[in-house]
Amino acid sequence: LKHVEILDAKTKDKLCFLDKVGNIFTFNPQWYPARQSIRLDPKGKSLKDEDVLQHLPVGTTVFLTEYAGPLLIYLMFYFRVPFIYAPKYDFTTSKHWVVHLACMCHSFHYVKRLLETLFVHRFSHGTMPLRNIFKNCTYYWGFAAWMAYYINHPLYTPPIYGEQQIRLALIVFLFCQIGNFSIHIALRNLRPPGSKTRKIPYPTKNPFTWIFLLVSCPNYTYELGSWLGFTLMTQCLPVAAFTLVGFIQMTVWAKGKHRSYLKEFRDYPTLRSPILPFIL
Amino acid sequence: MASGEEDGTVEEKETNNKKRTKGAIATAWLTFYNIAMTAGWLVLAVAMVRYYLQKGTHKGLYRNIARTLKFFQTFALLEVGHCAIGIVRTSVIVTGVQVCSRIFMVWFVTNSIRQIQNEESVILFVVVWTITEITRYSFYTFNLLNHLPYFIKWARYNMFIVMYPLGVIGELLTIHASLPYVRRSGMYSLRLPNKYNVSFDYYYFLIIVMLSYIPLFPQLYFHMLRQRRRVLHGEIVVEKDE
């Protein structure tokens, strides 16, 4: 831990900060310690006296758990670990090459996310309530298991239009993965480390960022595209369901972000839509 | 200036008038709706009593009332709409869950699995639903007419204590009885391989539905108990669920 700030729950004023963890202190003599409550989140539960700040789930650890889960769970189904399918299939591999391709794409996607969480993203709030972690993990891990079960099933049916469909799907998937990564880099470069200034994102030299002309949250646009590609590649209804649910959630987030951009910047480009150019 | 101020107040009056007419229409519609539903479930009650008095048995009773039951229970979907457009101040989700569970029971269990239609558990939950709905809809009706007899209020907030568990027992026993028939027929199920690469087993789905009663029933029951304490102990009735 480098820097811990304590904020007033109602006014969000900075009360004090700790840079030498381990000191005993009183920061507001108006209320004696028994009347003070420290929480990670204004709406969360109070921390107990014995809680060690370093050991509480915060920021990156949450995302790492959320993303490592699907990565490993999918691999378990891919390698047909015992007790999932009939015993005669244990540790066998699928005879369809699209299944191997799908595993590579799925794994690539989550490895990329893990690396981005570690090296690219700058989190604006370092905390997340415990309740959310449970809900998010159930969502990510549950869907991963549901998808992986069918894609790696011995009775899996490959896409109807065969190689053409798979090739198109792969192109879409890779294009959107690169796009998504480009946006994350562009957003990171918007704000130098430690600065609190917020700026409007604009297209850069990278063609994948030119979509900023039409969309406020192109990272979500590309994410949707990736999963559409994966759906096409695997022709699997649970993947389509996951794509749909993700799309709904990302649209909600994109609309919120778009609204806050409009509120904050007078000169915000009017051509932009939240997530789908001209549509949504 | 004079005309500017007049325009302002005229606009205000117009929107207020619109609001009042909308409120009046809503109340009129809801009053009609609740009277109609009370009547419908009363008709059902009478039909069931008559059948039992004439035939002396419950066998065939479900077939006899099936159409009326399906009609009025399905009509209750409108209540979700009422919450959605805001003329009833209850959560859309809570109402949605309640109505959907009824629709599920009627259409996807009792209606589709003919072999269980003569089970006693079916009669149990249909009777419970009928008593509950007559009480509930007449409560809403009298409320809208601003003339609520105490005994209706008493019934609404006390009978559920017995009705709710009895209804749950009837529903669970019915689903349980249907399991062997579902398994044998493979109804509503999709097996691998298929081009959507998905499967669905109605048998296991029903088992999960039964298990879901365990967390859900106590929550609903204790919610009603809390409402009861608030209403019958003289506090303000707020017909809005959290």
TrEMBL record, chain A:
Ranges of residues in domain 3-oxo-5-alpha-steroid 4-dehydrogenase C-terminal: 127-280
Limits of the TECR-like N-terminal domain: 3-63
Transmembrane domains' residue ranges: 67-86, 138-156, 168-187, 208-230, 236-254
InterPro entries associated with the record: 3-oxo-5_a-steroid_4-DH_C, SRD5A/TECR, TECR-like_N
Membrane topology qualifier: Multi-pass membrane protein
Main location as per UniProt: endoplasmic reticulum
GO cellular component: endoplasmic reticulum; membrane
Compartments, as annotated in UniProt: Endoplasmic reticulum; Membrane
Top-level taxon of origin: Eukaryota
UniProt GO MF annotations: oxidoreductase activity, acting on the CH-CH group of donors
Family matches, as Pfam families: Steroid_dh, TECR_N
UniProt keyword terms in alphabetical order: Endoplasmic reticulum, Membrane, Oxidoreductase, Transmembrane, Transmembrane helix
GO biological process: very long-chain fatty acid biosynthetic process
Similarity field: Belongs to the steroid 5-alpha reductase family.
The protein's name: Trans-2,3-enoyl-CoA reductase b
TrEMBL record, chain B:
GO terms of molecular function: very-long-chain (3R)-3-hydroxyacyl-CoA dehydratase activity
Catalytic activity, reaction form: (3R)-hydroxyhexadecanoyl-CoA = (2E)-hexadecenoyl-CoA + H2O; a very-long-chain (3R)-3-hydroxyacyl-CoA = a very-long-chain (2E)-enoyl-CoA + H2O
Record EC number: 4.2.1.134
Domain of life: Eukaryota
Top EC group: lyase
Pathway the protein takes part in: Lipid metabolism; fatty acid biosynthesis
InterPro entries linked: Tyr_Pase-like_PTPLA
One Gene Ontology term from the biological process aspect of the record: very long-chain fatty acid biosynthetic process
Biological role stated in the UniProt entry: Catalyzes the third of the four reactions of the long-chain fatty acids elongation cycle. This endoplasmic reticulum-bound enzymatic process, allows the addition of two carbons to the chain of long- and very long-chain fatty acids/VLCFAs per cycle. This enzyme catalyzes the dehydration of the 3-hydroxyacyl-CoA intermediate into trans-2,3-enoyl-CoA, within each cycle of fatty acid elongation. Thereby, it participates to the production of VLCFAs of different chain lengths that are involved in multiple biological processes as precursors of membrane lipids and lipid mediators.
Protein's recorded name: Very-long-chain (3R)-3-hydroxyacyl-CoA dehydratase
